[in-house]
Design brief:
CATH topology: Fumarate Reductase Cytochrome B subunit
Structural class: mainly alpha
Largest sheet: none
InterPro entries: Cyt_b561_bac/Ni-Hgenase (IPR011577), Di-haem_cyt_TM (IPR016174), FDH_cytochrome_b556_subunit (IPR051817)
Distance between the termini: 49 Å
Protein name: Formate dehydrogenase subunit gamma
Subcellular location: Cell membrane
Main location: membrane
Shape: elongated
Number of helices: 9
Domain Cytochrome b561 bacterial/Ni-hydrogenase: 10-134
CATH superfamily: Transmembrane di-heme cytochromes, Chain C
């Protein structure tokens, strides 16, 4: 709990601008993101699917970026309540246990899916190296994140 709390504080304090930009990106959830999330299970199972153009983060990445930090915050808060039960109302302590359990199960699922999709899923090899090196091929970025690619490198930026 202490480590998670320190990690959150360090991330917010030392990377505030990146945090704000990340939040802006993940909250840009539109029709294409909903279509992506609806079609992705078919792609995941290997069916050929035409996906809608995406921004810097696709609909699934945005969902992961919302669910995982929410689970971490719930884990930290409920963990402190369980750790120091005498400081809190008994009803709050009782509700902290199922909240902690649900957040842990959900975050474990999200971490496993993130690990698989980022490392082993056939269409994600470029993503893995992007996380490792910090860059991806331009043609891959244009195909998987067309809206972001156009906003960042399109004709508008060339002028």
């Amino acid at each position: 709990a202490v480590f998670m709390t320190l990690f959150i504080i360090i991330f917010v304090v030392f990377n505030f601008k990146a945090l704000v930009n990340w939040i802006k990106d993940i909250l840009r959830f539109g029709k294409n993101d909903i279509i992506f999330v609806m079609k992705f299970p078919l792609e995941f199972l290997g069916f050929p699917v035409k996906m809608p153009p995406q921004t810097k983060f696709n609909g699934g990445e945005k969902g992961n970026s919302i669910i995982t930090p929410t689970c971490v915050i719930l884990l930290v808060i409920s963990g402190y309540i369980m750790w120091f039960p005498s400081l809190f109302a008994p009803g709050l302590v009782r509700i902290a246990y199922p909240i902690h359990d649900i957040a842990m199960v959900l975050s474990t699922f999200m971490v496993c899916m993130h690990g698989y999709l980022g490392s082993f899923h056939p269409g994600s090899g470029e993503s893995f190296w992007g996380m490792w090196k910090g860059t991806v091929r331009a043609d891959w970025a244009k195909h998987h994140h067309a809206i972001w690619y156009e906003e960042t490198y399109g004709e508008k930026k060339a002028e």
